[in-house]
Design a protein that fits this description.
Layout (H helix, E strand, L loop, with lengths): L2 E7 L3 H16 L5 E8 L3 H11 L3 E3 L2 H6 L5 E4 L6 H10 L3 E5 L6 H14 L3 E4 L6 H11 L6 E9 L16 H4 L3 H16 L3 E9 L4 E3 L5 H5 L8 E3 L5 E8 L4 E7 L8 E8 L2 E6 L5 E6 L10 E4 L20 H18 L7 H20 L3 E2 L4
Parallel strand pairs: 1-2, 1-4, 2-3, 4-5, 5-6, 7-12
Antiparallel strand pairs: 7-13, 8-11, 8-17, 9-10, 11-12, 13-14, 14-15, 15-16
Helix pairs in contact: 1-10, 4-5, 5-11, 8-11
Bound molecules: nicotinamide-adenine-dinucleotide (NAD).
Length: 387
């Protein structure tokens, strides 16, 4: 069988999730090519060696440019902070590598356009990893919508809430710096919701948004919480937060549906509370990532004495991907979504299968993100540029 040599750039959270998927997916799925974990690239050599050993990467490198230039690498897998996505993806495309890129695609639409142009010109496969599209229950939602179960869609209500920075002594990591992240939970979390909304409901025509920042100064990574609590005079130990802590957005879809999106890192008690609700003329669907095997469905066609939401456990063999895993009811989790992405990406490279979302979807999503930030800054509703 043909092999596909993969190089991963970034060795932490997404580095682990992707490594696990590249290594494990062929054990469960029939694949048209065998991924080879060729090179792991990161900045800290000591932890990089450990990472490579743990996940079975053959070699390590501390320079992504060397990795991208290698003749024996077919795929560049981008798992680094968002400000590096464009430079690495464009270099990878120019070197003829297929690209598996973490979300959000980029900080700005200018970067997104350049990435899309480079990948399209090079004729390489470009995939943006909004892994939640590949939750079987969400794919079931898509099928139900396409089959008319929901009918005309009136409303989307998407919410992505976390609480990991409520403590003001949490350090100023890259996620809290606009130069690195684009924006805060808006780029990080609303991007996921926007992708699902585009997948399930359709394109977004205009938005109106508000953002706010609750903690404007944080200790620099490595600086102690005690120093931070000494007060704002200790400027050498703290830095300015340059992103929002919460971003709420109202949206009108091209098809007339009205939607809302809430993203926050200040929702105490919410760890990874990613939910959506879709309400239509024939029925409704709701999803909660913390119960990701389940879809709640409501049909207006049920007899009135039986009407109510019911829970579908999306673990039957006819639900997407499930037959490769376990018998019905034996449930899958977060890491499986990355496996599904790897399986589909390999099919795109090896067999020419279609894959989404692509960098084109990433550009459209970035245009929504930007329109919302403009709306929040100017206090007006903003029309979203389409592509
Ligand atoms: N799909 C998802 O659900 C999901 C979840 C979390 C993060 N993400 C995205 O994944 C990307 C990475 O996020 P993360 O949470 O893994 O970040 P992280 O901070 O945990 O890890 C980033 C990694 O990049 C490495 N790195 C930074 N600069 C580098 C360079 N110049 N060369 C090589 N390596 C470098 C760091 O050493 C670190 O290993 C981001 O774009 C983020 O938005 C996606």
């Amino acid at each position: 069988m043909r092999s596909l040599n993969v190089a991963i750039i970034g060795q932490n959270f997404m580095g682990k999730a992707h490594s696990h998927a590249w290594r494990n997916a062929p054990r469960f799925f029939e694949m048209g090519a065998r991924p080879v974990l060729k090179v792991a690239c990161g900045r800290d050599q000591a932890t990089l060696e450990r990472f490579a050993h743990t996940w079975g990467w053959e070699e390590t490198s501390s320079d992504w440019r060397d990795v991208v230039a290698r003749d024996d690498v077919d795929v560049i897998d981008i798992c680094v902070p968002t400000n590096l996505h464009a430079e690495i993806a464009i270099a990878a495309a120019e070197a003829g590598k297929h690209i598996f890129c973490e979300k959000p695609l980029s900080r700005t639409s200018a970067e997104a356009r350049a990435m899309l142009a480079a990948a399209t010109d090079a004729g390489v496969v470009h995939y943006l990893n909004h892994n939640y599209r590949r939750v079987p229950a969400i794919m079931l939602a898509k099928r139900l919508i396409d089959d008319g179960f929901v009918g005309r869609i009136f409303h989307w209500r998407g919410s992505y809430l976390q609480d990991w920075i409520v403590d003001p002594s949490f350090p100023l990591t890259w996620h809290l710096q606009a130069d690195a992240a684009g924006s805060g939970p808006h780029h990080d979390l609303n991007s996921h919701s926007i992708d699902l909304a585009r997948f399930l409901v359709g394109d977004i025509a205009s938005v109106s948004a508000m953002t706010t920042t609750f903690v404007r100064e944080r200790p620099l990574p490595g600086a102690g919480a005690a120093t931070f609590s000494a007060g704002a005079g200790e400027v050498s130990e703290t830095g300015e937060v340059t992103v929002e802590d919460a971003a709420f957005m109202l949206a009108e879809f091209e098809n007339g549906a009205l939607g809302s999106f809430s993203a926050s890192r200040f929702a105490s008690g919410r760890k990874n509370h990613h939910t959506f609700e879709i309400y239509g003329s024939e029925g409704s669907i709701t999803f909660d990532l913390e119960r990701l095997n389940e879809l709640e469905v409501f049909s207006r066609h049920d007899p009135s004495y039986l009407q109510g939401f019911r829970t579908v456990l999306a673990t039957e063999s006819e639900h997407p991907y499930i037959s490769a895993w376990w018998p019905p009811g034996h449930t899958i989790g977060y890491e499986h979504t990355f496996h599904h992405a790897v399986v589909d990406f390999v099919a795109a490279v090896a067999d020419g299968a279609a894959i989404a979302p692509t960098f084109d979807d990433g550009l459209r999503e970035t245009l929504v993100l930007e329109a919302a930030l403009r709306s929040a800054a100017d206090g007006v509703r903003v029309t979203v540029e389409q592509g």
